[in-house]
Design brief:
Elements (H helix, E strand, L loop, with lengths): L1 E2 L8 E2 L7 E3 L20 E4 L6 E6 L8 E9 L13 E5 L2 E7 L1 H5 L4 E5 L10 E8 L8 E2 L1 E7 L17
Antiparallel strand pairs: 1-2, 3-4, 4-11, 5-10, 6-9, 6-12, 7-8, 7-10
């Protein structure tokens, strides 16, 4: 688990120790992203070893079919041999449902620049886990990768569902 002092949202980040990585000490541009991850987070990519893809299965807590989630995924093309659009193109699905299709990070932002995809509307509900799959498209030469992901469980705050004049009465 890592906590980065320059993370303005003070998040905790966990490292995937199972996937091969591609790292750089090159500065990666993160300006303009909705959720502003620390630069250190997008200087490492977790790589699929085949076109079959990369997946993350995350448990839901508590296990419930009523909660929805906010999902954000971060990418940065760190491989200098990727010098043209179309070399690494992949789809993302969540629990088997297409989330984003035909992602080509190089075509969107080039090398050493972070790219974010996120759920503008909550996704789910899910029963006991969230399964995020990244799979290469048919014409892709290179397998998919992922720098980081965030998932937040959303719930209704019972304190804001109603109010009464007694709530603010001063005696």
């Amino acid at each position: 688990m890592h906590r980065y002092p320059n993370d303005t949202l003070d998040r905790l980040w966990f490292t995937d120790t199972t996937a091969p990585t591609n790292q750089t000490s090159q500065a990666v541009v993160v300006a303009g992203l909705a959720d502003s991850p620390p630069v250190s987070v997008v200087q490492t990519n977790f790589m699929a070893t085949t076109a079959a893809g990369l997946y993350y299965k995350l448990p839901t807590f508590p296990q419930s079919t009523s909660y929805k989630y906010y999902v954000a995924l971060y990418f940065a093309e760190l491989d200098p041999s990727v010098n043209a659009s179309g070399l690494r193109v992949f789809d993302v699905s969540i629990n088997g449902v297409p989330f984003y299709q035909a992602i080509d990070v190089f075509a969107e932002v080039g090398l050493y620049t972070a790219y974010e995809i996120y759920s503008p509307n909550p996704v789910g509900p899910f029963s006991d886990h969230v399964l995020i799959n990244l799979t290469s498209t048919a014409g892709s030469v290179l397998p998919p990768f992922l720098a980081a992901l965030e998932i937040f469980q959303l719930f209704q705050n019972p304190m804001v569902s109603a109010t009464s004049s007694v709530d603010s009465k001063i005696r």
